[in-house]
Amino acid sequence: DLKIALATYMVTYHEGCANWVQDNVPDAILFKFMSTVEAKYPTTNAFHNYSHGIDVLYSVSRHMRMTSSDSFLSDTSQFLLLIASIAHDVGHLGVNNQYLVETNHELAVKYNDRSPLENLHCAMLFQIASSSPDLNIWVNVGKSLYQEMRKGIIAAILHTDMLKHNDMMKELTLLYQMNSESFDNLKPADVVMGHPSNAQLLMNALLHGADIGNPMKPWKLCEMYAHACLDEFFAQGDMEKAAGVPVQMLNDREKVNRPNSQVGFIEFVICPMCESLVNLFPQLDHLAEDLAVNVTKWSQLWIDEAQPSEEAAGKVKARVEKISTRCQAVCRDFRGIQEHTNLKYV
């Protein structure tokens, strides 16, 4: 299968950990692991499927290359982040945590209502790897390193829970404020050196940013993924109506305007995430550029579809202008700095 081969290739030949992977993870084991992960992703989910896993893996790998992550992450840290990326939604049920809690689902009961889906994804990843010797991607890893990598994977995946989003934004803002000179000069290694918790925070940010980063992609991808995600939300909304539980805000297909929902999502969730990522990694300023374009396109689609009053349209345009201004403000000319510090831009 092309997708399985692609995932295997991206992990095997990722520049920051390729030598370590090729020395320590047998090709056949990695391929079979990827194949099993693919089989555990439901094919019925409109959005949370293996294609999403591949997309997140690609985004994380690309962003690590662009930010020269080998300057601040070890080869094993980069490997664990790639594995977390491909499996971060494995076994996804096509509904969110709130639905599982509201319906007293067995996963919510098992995990005490705390990140039931993310706990499932973590558990399934390690269950796959431990289920057979020919799936054990840790076969040549010592106990101490395995425990360290397991801890890093679990932390990264658990931080994809949207309930942790606001706290992560506060942590990233504080990290940047306390180390702005290092980040502005493309020297995150200065921030990570001697502070492994900072390395984990940056890994969490890279994975979370890729996971929810559809609005920061070129328009065609942004639009495609938004509709797929909303299709899944609406399917959950139908289930909520059938179960007699409250229909969550974005899940009612009869009430939600798709373009307008994206403007709000970008304004309140994605724009702060984008600001944090580009502050920490100026090389990722293309994310802010695409976001500014996309929020403008969504707002125009809303105006075209909803035919709002002049006053309502004006209010939305004002919101969009503020978002665009924030995106523009966070972009800065880092290429001169990059030449000075001899870092690569790929």
UniProtKB/TrEMBL annotation:
List UniProt keywords, sorted A-Z: Hydrolase, Metal-binding
Residues involved in Zn(2+) 2 binding: D89
Residues forming the catalytic site: H48 (proton donor)
- Residues bound to Zn(2+) 1: H52, H88, D89, D211
Q: Where is the PDEase domain?
A: 1-309
Fetch the Pfam families from UniProt.
PDEase_I (PF00233)
Sorted alphabetically, the Gene Ontology BP terms of this entry are: signal transduction
Indicate what this protein is called per its UniProt record: PDEase domain-containing protein
User: Which Gene3D superfamilies has this protein been placed in?
Assistant: 3'5'-cyclic nucleotide phosphodiesterase, catalytic domain
Q: Which residues cross the membrane?
A: none
Asked whether the keyword Thylakoid is assigned, the reply is no
